[in-house]
Write a structure and sequence with these properties.
By secondary structure, the chain is of the alpha+beta class. Helices cover 49% and strands 10% of the residues. The protein has helices spanning 23-29, 46-51, 99-104, 127-133, 148-159, 167-178, 187-198, 203-213, 216-219, 226-238, 243-251, 257-264, 268-283, 289-298, 305-315, 323-334, 338-344, 352-366, and strands at residues 17-21, 38-42, 55-56, 63-65, 72-75, 78-81, 89-92, 114-115, 121-122, 135-136, 164-165. Helix 10 runs antiparallel to helix 11 (243-251), helix 14 packs across helix 18 (352-366) and helix 15 runs antiparallel to helix 16 (323-334).
Length: 367
C-alpha cells in the first residue's frame, strides 16, 4: 500500500498517513467544484489524534475535527454486519486497518477513490474508470448490508443525470428489498436522502431507481402516479423551486399526503405546502375578487406572504399561474391599514370585520 505521509504544509498532520476520500475526489475528477473534504487517517489511534490537538466528535466510530481547519478526519475502519438496518453494524478502527480495507466498505466505486495531499490517486476499486464511463456501481456485496444505500443510489442518480446505474447494482437493490432490508429504514434517514434527491437536478431519476428496486412501495406506499409527478419534479428543478414546493408536487396526486408527511416526519413547511397546494391549484385562476380573497385568506397569505408566493411558484409548474398578479393582490390586501378601520368602527366593534372585508375586496376590484 502507498504509505505517503503528509508533507503538504500541515504541521498538525506531520507523520500521519492522511487521504482525501469520497465526494471531493469524485467531483474533482468530474471537473465540478468540490464541497467539503473528508479525510481518512491510516495507522493512527484515537490517542495519537488527541495528542495532536484533534477534537473527537464521532459517536459510533472515531471522527475528529482538525484543530485549525475544522475539517473531519476519520480513522480508517472496517464494518461488520451485526443486525438489521443501517445501525446494525460493528466497527473496527485499529491502527492495522489499511486504506484499501476502508475504501472496500464504501457504497459506490465512484465514492471509493482516495487522493494524497500531494494529488496522487489511490483507486484499488477502479472508481475513476466508472467516473469516466458515467456508471454508478456498488463496491461489493457489503452494499446489501445497509438499506440506506438504495436511497443514496437514487440520490446520486438524481444528481448525476448522465450516469447510468449498473444492472447488477439495481438487481442487488431488488434483492435487498425482497429480503426485507428496506423495511428497516427509519423515517429520518429516508427523509434526509429523499429531500436531497428532490433538490437535485433530475429528481425523477431518484424516484425511478426507487421504483425499479421496489423500495418506493416500501418507503412511500401512499404515493400515486409517480411517473406524472416525476415530470413535475424535473420541471420544478429547472425552475429552481424550493424544497417545500417540490415536496408538495411529489404528493399532489395522492389523497394520503398527510399520511406521507407523518410517515416521513417531514418538516412543517413541507407538510403545509403539501396540504395547501391542491387548494391553490384549484383556485389559482380565480378572476372574481371574492374568490381571490377567499384563497388568500384560506392560505393565511396575509400573515405568511412568502409561503403563499412559494406555493404559487410550485403551482406554476403544473398550471398557468399569473405570479405578478397574485403578488400585487397580496401586497394590496396586506397594505390596508386595519388599525385605521378599527378606529373608525370604535363605537361598534362588530362592524370591524365586515368593514375590513369590504376594504380588501375593494382593493382587489380596483386592481
Amino acid at each position: 500500500m502507498n504509505t505517503a505521509t503528509n508533507d503538504a504544509g500541515d504541521p498538525d498532520c506531520d507523520g500521519l498517513q492522511v487521504y482525501i476520500v469520497g465526494g471531493a475526489v469524485r467531483d474533482a475528477l468530474l471537473g465540478q467544484p468540490a464541497g467539503d473534504r473528508d479525510w481518512v487517517v491510516v495507522g493512527a489511534t484515537p490517542e495519537d489524534m488527541a495528542r495532536r490537538g484533534f477534537i473527537p466528535v464521532g459517536g459510533d466510530f472515531p471522527v475528529f475535527l482538525h484543530p485549525r481547519t475544522k475539517e473531519e478526519y476519520a480513522l480508517a475502519r472496517t464494518e461488520r454486519k451485526s443486525g438489521r438496518g443501517y445501525k446494525g453494524f460493528t466497527f473496527y478502527t485499529g491502527a492495522d486497518v489499511t486504506l484499501e480495507q476502508d475504501l472496500q466498505r464504501r457504497d459506490l466505486t465512484v465514492n471509493a477513490i482516495a487522493r494524497t495531499p500531494q494529488g496522487q490517486l489511490l483507486d484499488p476499486l477502479d472508481g475513476a474508470a466508472d467516473v469516466r464511463a458515467r456508471v454508478l456501481r456498488h463496491v461489493g456485496e457489503a452494499f446489501a448490508e445497509d438499506p440506506v444505500r438504495i436511497l443514496r443510489l437514487g440520490r446520486f442518480a438524481a444528481r448525476f443525470g448522465d450516469f447510468t446505474v449498473a444492472p447488477e447494482t439495481l438487481a442487488l437493490c431488488r434483492r435487498m428489498v425482497d429480503e426485507g432490508e428496506a423495511d428497516a429504514l427509519v423515517p429520518e434517514r429516508v427523509w434526509k436522502e429523499l429531500s436531497r434527491g428532490l433538490m437535485a437536478a433530475t429528481p425523477s431519476r431518484m424516484l425511478d431507481v426507487l421504483a425499479q428496486s421496489g423500495a418506493l412501495a416500501r418507503v412511500m406506499p401512499q404515493l400515486r402516479q409517480a411517473d406524472t409527478v416525476s415530470a413535475d419534479l424535473d420541471r420544478a428543478a429547472s425552475l429552481d423551486v424550493p424544497l417545500p414546493g417540490r415536496y408538495a408536487l411529489l404528493c399532489r396526486l395522492s389523497s394520503e399526503r398527510d399520511a406521507i408527511g407523518r410517515q416521513l416526519r417531514v418538516p412543517t413547511d413541507c407538510a403545509d405546502h403539501a396540504r395547501l397546494l391542491p387548494r391553490v391549484l384549484q383556485h389559482a385562476d380565480a378572476s372574481q375578487p371574492d374568490d381571490q380573497l377567499a384563497l388568500i385568506e384560506s392560505c393565511d397569505a396575509l400573515r405568511k406572504p412568502d409561503r403563499y408566493l412559494s406555493l404559487l411558484q410550485a403551482a406554476a409548474v403544473v398550471a398557468p399561474v399569473d405570479l405578478p398578479a397574485w403578488q400585487r393582490r397580496v401586497d394590496a390586501v396586506r397594505g390596508i391599514d386595519a388599525g385605521a378601520i378599527a378606529r373608525q368602527c370604535a363605537g361598534d366593534p362588530a362592524k370591524i370585520k365586515p368593514a375590513l372585508q369590504q376594504a380588501r375586496l375593494k382593493v382587489l376590484r380596483d386592481l
